[in-house]
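Re: that backbone. Tokens:
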């Protein structure tokens, strides 16, 4: 049965704007053909220290590649910055990367965001391919053409929209991923189900652990891709992908340099509970749903204690969120499961009430 499901999804191909998202060995075979046919002048494989250790040999065993140069960045969000880019641009330049070069990003969202950004700017844009190795990057970061780096403590402030040539998903890479990183990526799968996929939501909510088989990963990518195809530049519908992220980002930024540092998905999971409560208050979203969502999140993620003064500081940070404009804080909320509404302004007092609900 499991073998059959893997076979079905292995041969699937999701078409995005100008590229395909492929799965497992079928995807790697197509990648090998692509490398043979495109005659790239230089191929750079971009890894971080962890994906070099855990994923590089696995990847090289799955593809045919004659020559490549390895470029390595340091792992972690704190290295998704211009200093790391300067080092990588220099290596690529020293190794005579030209306009016909290719970067293959083998890693999580930090590697693909930064590698995509480097590709989009080097010599006014060279090709890149994403091979995501974390759950989060499989269902979210590697798809949709957003590239970027952080600026000081502000996340993803500098970046481009620039599509990869191809994305290949293989959940075998997840075997070496830390459990908390799996949970972090799961928050995006859960979010995708909440905003657009009721059947997957019903499946996920009945579990008390992260559920992420290949079919669920596939469905999650379908959801993200569908929204990106409707509204690539995030003028309208794509905003719904930020469900739980308005407060989630602020919570993540607030705890960034503390001993309570949270992974992206851990912060987003709190943001999802808060946004669901606000949806109940402002759009009559069922309180039963809100309670089930909170219970589900609390089964998977450690509950975080947040004091009144911390809540005040988190609300102050909201102003820096990219989704806010003209000094107003914009939320994405739900009328129903799979019925998002965006550009909703919420009063400070109600935001405080949502924290009270999360903490109760
Ligand atoms: N571009 C987008 O649309 C988009 C969407 C969502 C998130 N993002 C970005 O993605 C980033 C988060 O991505 P992430 O959660 O993948 O984090 P990450 O890239 O930092 O990876 C998490 C950790 O896991 C390690 N790792 C990666 N693959 C591994 C493997 N297979 N085995 C063992 N260790 C492995 C990494 O070295 C790192 O330490 C954030 O910077 C976020 O802004 C971008």
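Recovered sequence:
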């Amino acid at each position: 049965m499991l073998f059959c499901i893997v076979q079905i999804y292995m041969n699937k191909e999701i078409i995005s704007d100008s590229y395909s998202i492929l799965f497992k060995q079928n995807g790697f075979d197509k990648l090998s053909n692509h490398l043979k046919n495109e005659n790239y002048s230089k191929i750079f494989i971009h890894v971080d220290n962890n994906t070099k250790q855990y994923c590089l040999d696995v990847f090289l065993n799955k593809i045919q590649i004659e020559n490549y140069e390895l470029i390595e960045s340091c792992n972690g969000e704190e290295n998704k910055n211009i200093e790391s880019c300067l080092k990588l641009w220099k290596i690529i330049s020293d190794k005579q990367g030209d306009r016909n070069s290719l970067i293959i990003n083998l890693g999580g969202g930090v590697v693909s965001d930064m590698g995509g950004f480097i590709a989009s700017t080097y010599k006014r844009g060279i090709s890149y391919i994403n091979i995501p190795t974390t759950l989060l990057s499989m269902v979210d970061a590697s798809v949709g053409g957003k590239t970027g780096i952080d600026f000081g403590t502000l996340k993803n402030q500098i970046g481009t929209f620039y599509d990869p040539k191809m994305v290949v998903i293989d959940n075998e890479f997840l075997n070496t991923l830390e459990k908390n990183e799996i949970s972090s990526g799961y928050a995006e799968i859960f979010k995708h189900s909440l905003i657009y996929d009721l059947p997957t939501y019903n499946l996920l909510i009945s579990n008390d652990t992260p559920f992420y088989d290949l079919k669920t990963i596939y469905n999650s990518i379908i959801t993200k891709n569908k929204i990106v195809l409707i509204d690539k530049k995030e003028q309208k519908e794509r905003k719904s992908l930020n469900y739980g992220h308005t407060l989630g980002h602020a919570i993540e930024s607030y705890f960034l340099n503390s001993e309570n540092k949270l992974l992206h998905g851990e912060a987003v999971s709190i943001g999802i509970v808060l946004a669901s409560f606000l949806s109940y208050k402002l759009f009559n979203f069922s309180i039963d749903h809100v309670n089930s969502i909170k219970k589900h999140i609390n089964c998977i993620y450690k509950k975080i204690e947040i004091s009144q003064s911390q809540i005040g500081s988190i609300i102050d940070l909201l102003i820096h969120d990219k989704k806010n404009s003209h000094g107003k804080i914009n939320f994405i909320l739900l009328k129903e499961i799979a019925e998002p509404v965006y550009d909703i302004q919420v009063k400070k007092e109600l935001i405080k009430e949502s924290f009270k609900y999360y903490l109760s």
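The chain has a mean pLDDT of 94. The longest strand covers residues 154-161.
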